[in-house]
Design brief:
50% helix; 8-stranded mixed beta barrel; alpha/beta; binds ligand C2E; EAL domain-containing protein; binds calcium ion; 12 helices
Amino acid sequence: AKSEGRGVFRFFEPEMDAVMQRRLSLEMDLRRGLEAGEFELFYQPVVDAVTGRIGAFEALVRWRHPGRGFVPAEEFIPLCEETGLIVPLGAWVLQRACADAVSWPGSLKVTVNLSPAQFAGAGPGAAVAAALEASGLPASRLEVEITEAVMVRDAPATLAILRALKSLGVSVALDDFGTGYSSLSYLREFPFDRVKIDKSFVSDLSRDEGSAAIVTAMIALCGSLGMATTAEGVETVSQMAALGSIGCTNLQGFLFSRPVPASEVPALCQRLDEA
Ligand code: C2E
Ligand code: CA
Ligand code: CA
Ligand code: CA
């Protein structure tokens, strides 16, 4: 233990110290930003693969940093997860997304990403219920997205939490399918309404016959289990056509729209639904 201690100690010499310092200052900046209201939600439409109409918008968080401009989610979400800041940030995202969606036309849904850290303890049920209650959004218009990492952490606890969410009337999607610790048995054991096919498969669709075969099989499997499928990262007309022809039910990606600020949602609905 002594020598191990020395080895570990040596690791924290200058270079490591600088890394830790940067993380610590980013963490303090995140806390400050959360209090100062620097986070914002952008929304990306999810369209019906057959009719092209928008059925939902995915909420994607952005950090409008006073000095650095918009910081993308992938640069701060991992640190928020490690530090536990994702819990208050995630609660804010739920509140904001439900409050925004309540004014959208018709039966448009909003989808919200939940991270594994939000499933610690009693899980996100209370935050979801509070956001629905405060906004007045019907539960049927909220969908939550989780990744395989949530189930890997604690499958029985996750199952109980997802069942509780579903009993509120919220629907549940499995995000980034195919990238993680995929076990096909998850699809049978967990009550998913939808599976989101990761954009890495979509981008390889036309280039690589193997990817096309995998995506075709995933969509057929999900369909036969009664689940809807959203393909992520659709950027080209040929990807759209290929996904439509193999029965993918919904499409999302830059081909339709980049994520936009909440204020642009009504105009986007008009543009896409009249196209
Ligand atoms: P994700 O949930 O898989 O979100 C999709 C990501 O793909 C988004 O990146 C989106 O902007 C991007 N994207 C959409 N269409 C296309 C396309 O056609 N091509 C390409 N190349 N990319 C596309 P973003 O917004 O940077 O988010 C990254 C990740 O950060 C998300 O991946 C999600 O895991 C996480 N995240 C974002 N917002 C939240 C949040 O509110 N809570 C939590 N827990 N995680 C979030
Ligand atoms: Ca997502
Ligand atoms: Ca995804
Ligand atoms: Ca992702």
